[in-house]
Task: inverse folding
């Protein structure tokens, strides 16, 4: 099939020669088809990887939806906040060359991207939103007025929450009046762009050094604010005791206590005797494809500079400043 031979056996009759020609052409064509199929599969896989159409099998990753001028600082924070290789998926409609250059600038992060509209359910499904632990929605600053950009952010938040109600969504808003709409859309945390500009400017004028301290606390590197888990053995002890322990062990200066209450699931509401009514309610929620009740989502509470008598609870964590090394 791949060669005409060396003349050991050659056709003599016209019919034999015709069969020989057909065998040669058929063999070469079949071999070409085989190699072309392999090559096309390899090329198609490469194209899918470049355009993010390949299957993403990550779990517990972070989604960054949308893009603006502060996007790279968000990536810097996500990469610096984790001691291991951070798994991040960018979901936006930016030009392919721009996104590929961005991925190349973060070789130490498991950075991938999905090209498409982050408000579309199909795009979010390709990014495996159902297996993500959190999502960051950046404001589209190219839209004017600011309310139009916040409407877009609200739409993306609604799309994410509709696919995974228990995911933690942090949204960026340009207009202070949009905060209530984003809350109703399901955003867990909302950052208002320029919210602290007035404080920074006034403190720099009347309290020299204040703005430098705040800038250091909000910058990546030494002296930045961090979240420190409280060891389980200190649950039930007072804040004064925990403050001293963290300060002595690692030099961590605790400024606040944050309590992240888990979402209340359907099983938490139903009784344990599996009555007919409870079983009926459970089956209805299972058929609807949801486990969490919207009005029973978890909440986050923050106590800044708590009193020494404050009793540390199970879901508490410390917010503070690590000691410079």
Result:
């Amino acid at each position: 099939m791949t060669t005409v031979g060396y003349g050991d056996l050659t056709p003599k009759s016209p019919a034999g020669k015709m069969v020989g020609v057909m065998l040669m052409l058929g063999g070469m064509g079949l071999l070409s088809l085989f190699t072309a199929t392999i090559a096309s599969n390899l090329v198609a896989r490469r194209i899918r990887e470049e355009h993010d159409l390949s299957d993403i099998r990550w779990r517990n990753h972070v989604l960054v939806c949308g893009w603006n001028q502060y996007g790279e600082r968000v990536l810097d924070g996500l990469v610096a906040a984790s001691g291991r290789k951070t798994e991040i998926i960018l979901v936006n409609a930016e030009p392919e060359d721009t996104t590929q250059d961005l991925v190349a600038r973060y070789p130490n992060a498991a950075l991938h991207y999905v090209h498409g509209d982050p408000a579309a359910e199909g795009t979010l499904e390709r990014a495996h939103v159902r297996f993500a632990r959190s999502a960051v929605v950046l404001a589209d600053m190219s839209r004017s007025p600011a309310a139009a950009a916040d409407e877009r952010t609200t739409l993306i938040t609604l799309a994410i929450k509709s696919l995974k109600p228990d995911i933690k969504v942090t949204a960026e808003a340009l207009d202070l009046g949009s905060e209530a709409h984003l809350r109703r859309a399901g955003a867990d945390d909302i950052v208002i762009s320029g919210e602290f500009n007035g404080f920074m400017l006034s403190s720099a004028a009347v309290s020299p050094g204040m703005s430098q301290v705040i800038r250091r606390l909000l910058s990546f590197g030494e002296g930045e604010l961090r979240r420190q888990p409280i060891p389980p053995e200190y649950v039930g002890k007072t804040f004064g005791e925990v403050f001293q322990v963290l300060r002595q062990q690692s030099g961590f200066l605790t400024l606040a206590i944050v309590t992240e209450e888990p979402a209340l699931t359907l099983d938490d509401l139903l009784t344990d005797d599996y009555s007919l009514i409870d079983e009926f309610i459970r089956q209805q929620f299972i058929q609807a494809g949801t486990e969490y009740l919207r009005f029973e989502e978890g909440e986050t509470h923050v106590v800044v500079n708590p009193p020494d008598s404050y009793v540390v609870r199970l879901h508490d964590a410390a917010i503070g400043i690590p000691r410079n090394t």
Remarks:
- The first helix runs from residue 14 to 50.
- Residues 80 and 101 are 20 Å apart (CA to CA).
